[in-house]
Specification:
- With about 500 residues, this protein is of the alpha/beta class.
- Helices cover about 30% and strands about 15% of the residues.
- The chain contains 13 helices and 20 strands.
- The strands form six sheets. It has a five-stranded parallel beta sheet, with no helix packed on it.
- Helix 4 (about 180-190) links the parallel strand 9 and strand 10.
- Helix 1 crosses helix 11.
- The relative contact order is 0.16.
Length: about 500
């Protein structure tokens, strides 16, 4: 008689919800989700800055089995994406499976019972046969390593922790960082600011954003003729697959995109001095390309200064650059990204023999078979783990591939009660041996970015098309896993 193992999913963003949806769609009900916040949504709950939106079109940035025919725009804003997540989670009965306000501090594999013991910050201990961390790569905001951070006496906040109580009207606003968030909120706040100074460490490769508003006519067409919706999704997917191949297998494809970006910058920034500041000095593709129609025009306005001199320190009244100039500010906004290479932090995860995952990954960096399984951590499967982020494409497509693989693993454990599985070190090493040469031949090695950790290892990105990852994860293969005999299925309730 088979018994479905108990499953604990950590995180209720797209990764955790996607995993729950995959299990529920397969008829597997023995799971629960814990979420530290009071609402689901992950980054789409947290990032409420002005102009927050996705840089992947919504027809592709959505679950394949839960299409939405009435997106307001091709590139939908944060509130619509968050509402979509809520709607789908409600329709599939996931919300009642989520324990909100439950933050995990640590988890350890109990070898005597063959289960995971998961401790929360309030001292509760949960148990599970299968542990699925789904906390994402972009959940912990990073402040820059600049002397004096925290000494500024005015309002200062990270873009992912936007302080909506601060009125920027007429203020001297200092914006630090030029990443994917900054190019969205800068055009929104520039008209309000008395003066906006953008402190730029490196210029971004910016491409035009082929956005459009979906009218009721579009919505009716997508609803009545599903093939039109599928055709658009396929066209978007194909475009990003080609972009992904340009980063790995077909580098010559970068040339047209580079020409487009250069021409676009020339058209939108007529001032040669400003245009020189906004011209990247690193290879295209090294950092994620950004899409915007209003970023460059905002920077050309008379109340904007682009400062490229490095910041020496944050002061009580503003910032000091390395040329000795003090720049006074009323508000500082940090658009400085996330601690993307610190996987699963600040949780402490311990596997067999009490070995801590952070110690195993230090100092080289995070690694996992298929980005999912780590040797010595039985029946633990990662969602959005090492080298599963995309340089081009929709992360939801990748997450669906991972969820399907893990669902198969759960079904295997169901048909083999009393077992736990741990990926073999040889399999993980073979995977890494295949992966690393592909990563070495990408432009991600040509500059400093959040894709690489302190040792220089690219721990985040998948080197190739998303279709290739789907093929690699299409079937759970028990032959690459060691089997651990465990007592009869646990009767502890989570």
């Amino acid at each position: 008689m088979s018994t479905t193992p108990t499953i604990l999913i950590i995180g209720a963003g797209f990764a955790g919800l996607g995993m729950g949806l995959e299990l529920r769609r397969a008829g597997i009900e023995s799971f629960s989700i814990v979420e530290r916040a009071g609402d689901l949504g992950g980054v789409w709950r947290e990032n409420t800055y002005p102009g927050a939106a996705c840089d992947v079109p919504s027809p592709l940035y959505s679950w394949s089995f839960a299409p939405k025919t009435d997106w307001p725009r091709r590139f939908s804003p944060q509130r619509d994406i968050h509402e979509y997540m809520r709607t789908v989670a409600t329709e599939y009965g996931l919300v009642e499976r989520i324990r909100f306000g439950t933050e995990v501090s640590d988890a350890e594999f109990d070898e005597t019972r063959g289960i995971w013991l998961v401790r929360t910050t309030d001292g509760e201990v949960l148990t599970a046969d299968v542990l699925i961390p789904a906390v994402g790569q972009l959940s912990r905001p990073a402040l820059p390593d600049i002397p004096g951070v925290g000494t500024f006496t005015g309002p200062a906040f990270h873009s992912a922790e936007w302080n909506h109580e601060v009125d920027l009207t007429g203020k001297r606003v200092a914006c630090i960082g030029t990443g994917a968030s900054a190019i969205q909120y800068i055009p929104q706040i520039q008209p309000k600011a008395g003066h906006l100074t953008l402190y730029q460490r490196s210029a971004a490769w910016v491409l035009p954003k082929f956005d459009t508003e979906y009218t009721p006519r579009h919505h009716r067409m997508f609803r009545r003729f599903p093939l039109t919706r599928l055709a658009e999704r396929f066209a978007i997917w194909l475009f990003f697959e080609v972009m992904a191949l340009s980063l790995t297998d077909l580098p010559w494809l970068r040339h047209p995109a580079t020409l487009l970006a250069n021409r676009y910058r020339t058209q939108q920034v007529p001032d040669p001095e400003l245009r020189a500041k906004l011209t990247p000095d690193y290879a295209p593709g090294c950092k994620r390309a950004l899409f915007s129609n209003d970023y460059f025009p905002a920077l050309t306005q008379p109340n904007v200064t682009v400062e490229t001199t490095a910041i020496e320190a944050i002061t009580p009244t503003g910032l000091r650059t390395t040329d000795g100039v003090d720049h006074e500010a009323d508000v500082i906004i940090y658009g400085t990204g996330f601690k993307g290479t610190e996987f699963l932090a600040p949780m402490t995860i311990s596997g067999t023999a009490g070995r801590k995952l952070a110690d195993i990954w230090s100092p080289e960096g995070a690694r996992a078979y298929l980005g999912i399984s780590v040797p010595g951590f039985p029946s633990m499967f990662l969602m959005y783990g090492p080298n599963t982020n995309v340089g081009s494409g929709s992360i939801i497509y990748m997450l669906e591939s991972q969820a399907r693989y893990i669902r198969q693993a759960v079904q295997y454990l169901t048909s083999h009660p009393g077992q736990a599985v741990s990926v073999r070190p040889t399999a993980e090493q073979s995977w890494d041996t295949w992966l690393q040469p592909r990563l070495r031949h990408t432009p991600w090695n040509l500059c400093s970015s959040w894709y690489r950790n302190a040792s220089g290892r690219i721990t985040n990105n998948w080197p190739g098309a998303t279709l290739l990852f789907r093929r690699k994860t299409r079937r759970f293969d028990p032959a690459v896993y060691d089997t651990l005999r465990t007592p009869s299925p646990t009767d502890q309730a989570m």
